[in-house]
Predict the structure.
Amino acid sequence: MPSSAPTLPMSELPYADNLAADEAAAESGVTEPRPDACTVPRHVAVVMDGNGRWARQRYMPRFFGHKQGVDALVRAIDAFNARGVRYLTVFAFSSENWKRPTEEVSGLMSLVLVGVSKYLDKLAGDGVRIRIIGDRATVSDRLRQAWDEAERLTQSNDRITLVVAFNYGGRWDVVQACRRALAEGVAPDAVDEDWLSRHMALSFAPDPDLFIRTGGEMRMSNFLLWQAAYSELFFTECLWPDFGEAEIDAALTAFAQRDRRFGGIRPQQAAREDT
């Protein structure tokens, strides 16, 4: 479904005042979350879909689409950071992606190493904190070492947290939390939503407010199934390598127009119904 939200000038966007407040707070050394940030999603999750189709449309191998996708991610980090988003979680490699051709999977693994080498210093300098979630058991030692270095180098940064979901699946996430409960001997009646949330892979971050998928598909594809229970969904036909500031602004504008009630009703509506 194509995005239909209007793209407004920066000064008219719903988060413009919040961004100005952020800049003022940064100058004064205050880094606490803004109390008036309700129109800006604190946490955005993205399924970065369409790299292969982008390459195919240009008669290029799929690998070139993935390479362009890495560059698009770096631009997106800059844009979300500038707009006041505090957490950006991206679906880089799903636990189902191992089914792809061996050559493509190998290329993706190599691309991660190249991306870390090329962009880590820039991201660290921009105040980006990097966190990796997913099953690390089946990836190479070299890749794990690159992740460890990225997390170590950026662990003190607090401008925006980039969470890379790699070899991740939403069902895997629930299963690993349940396995931890069994391993720790937790009593069944002690395992509730709060306990599971504290043991999920994304326990260090708030649940995503906005869930974006590029590439025209309208499904979650086993991404953050637990955490995205109340996320606002935004689907766009735009292929990931072409996903830029205009699409980001359209997504944020659409989010600001949503009425988020989390299963309840607004006090004004309740008052009207009682009269």
